[in-house]
What does this fold into?
Amino acid sequence: MSVLHVNNVSKSYGKHQILCNVQFSAQQGQIVGLIGPSGSGKTTIIKIVMGMDHPSAGNVEVLQKQVPDLRLLKQIGYMAQSDALYQDLTGYENLTFFASMFLMSKKEQQERISYVVNLVQLESAIKKRVATYSGGMKRRLSLAVALIQNPPLLILDEPTVGIDPELRKSIWQELTRLKNEEQKTIIVTTHVMDEAEKCDDLVMIREGRVITTGSPQKLKDDYQVTTLEEVFLKAGGEAHAHQSIS
Amino acid sequence: MRIRALVRRIVLQLVRDKRTLALLFIAPLLILTLMHFLFTSNGVPSKIGIEGLSSEMVERLEKLEIDVVSFQETSDIEDTIIDNELDGYLVSEGETLSLTVENTDPSRSNLLQAKIQQAISSGPSELVESGFKTNYIYGSEHTSFFDVLSPILVGFFVFFFVFLISGIGLLRERMTGTLERLLSTPIRRWEIVVGYLIGYGLFAIIQTIIVVVYAVNVLDMVLVGSIWHVLVTNVLIALVALSLGILLSSFAASEFQMIQFIPLVIVPQVFFTGIIPIAGMPEWLQIFSKVMPISYGANALKSIMYKGTGLSEVLTDLLVLIGFATVFIALNIVALKKYREI
Ligand SMILES: Nc1ncnc2c1ncn2[C@@H]1O[C@H](COP(=O)(O)OP(=O)(O)OP(=O)(O)O)[C@@H](O)[C@H]1O
Ligand SMILES: [Mg+2]
It folds into this structure.
């Protein structure tokens, strides 16, 4: 079942075209990786999917509903690229606050909070103010907030930046478990190629265009290379060549 | 439920921010106290001559720290005042009282008038109705510059600090990205605005109470009307400041830019509070004063605190304040569309 459909989305700020005919979709129970260099437009795509930004052309459909739709926001767990947390509140208070936004019962709140806190291994720091957290701890708390309402679709913008390899591994294990056992759909953006390997489907983006899509294995086969880095370089080069001809 | 969580969060954040709390609750008191010493005449009680007053009236005047000197019929009130270095001369002419003030220091004259008004108010009702008329030896009632300063100051400080703190509060939420994050949850735009109004409104009410109680009880600010009416008016002023502050914060990209609104938004309002008589301004400027929320608040406060009128007499001013707040609140809800269209 298709959970996310991005249809021919273009976006310009003034004369600057940031996205150009972006098209991809995600099936239920899939991890889809958006990969591309800095400034290629990944965050812009995610904001458009969340309904926080308006596409100049094209449209987005999530869970059979046209974006923007207020009802969708309960179904999407969102983690922004920069941590958006209340610094003068404790981690626990942050989680309670966001849980209240989803109108959860007290009991449900407690259950979900202890689950997500355990997942991101923040038990020891949860009663401390966020202002005292390290970068990685903030990242983990942001991830916990994204999971708080147990949404079927997760949209995570660079979730593992600043997180140490061990914890990064355990987070990816958990994402994979969520996908397999709970049939969650997960969209992640990343720069890291070994994370890209763990995705079911990749959408490679360069200068606001989708240069190629497919599973990591299929992409490597198609371009007859052994690493995703090479795929990226090769596909990017072709797209460039193609662009300059047309 | 969402609003309650939002209010709880705002309260929690502000309570932990001791410095902002101090700015909100202590700074107005410090400035008011300073202004008080700057603009009230140096503590010497007013000295007036009286003629033909009842002994109860004299007693009431003395209670208000007025030095009373009795005179037999005087042929020339002006000479009597000047020769005896009096601040004023109060004569009972049948039903009505007539006050002549020396008026070289308008703020002193006004204090005296307000005190006499107060003395009359606490007396028998037929006196209250007929009131008293004032004659000036020097200048006229229009010469006064600071006569209405104190009620205006109360309203102004409430406006200023609430404006600044609520504006910066929402601004910080924009800058740290939490507003955007908040709008990625199913909260409705109006719920955010209402949550903010209630959260900061609670602090604004506490601030208003502290400022008014301090001004009246510690600084002995003249209050002829009811303190409740003063509070109601100030709460409305705070509501306008609150909604305007969070609205303007959407046009600021940093705290510094928020501060830049002070000369643009706050300072002009000071000129139109009535500190400078509006009636004497060119017509186009008078029209300008109509769009200044503070001018209505100050007007209402002046009436209540000096003239002792009730809420019904200042109803128009209060309704205009409510109108301003309503418009600003609606604009706030629309302004949040920048982050989410629905
Ligand atoms: N509000 C905006 N106004 C103008 N240009 C913008 C705006 N937001 C983003 N851009 C531009 O859009 C392009 C894509 O930005 P985006 O944040 O989507 O990149 P990204 O792929 O997420 O990069 P990174 O990996 O560094 O996070 C950039 O060139 C950026 O300058
Ligand atoms: Mg990005």
The radius of gyration of chain A is 18 Å.
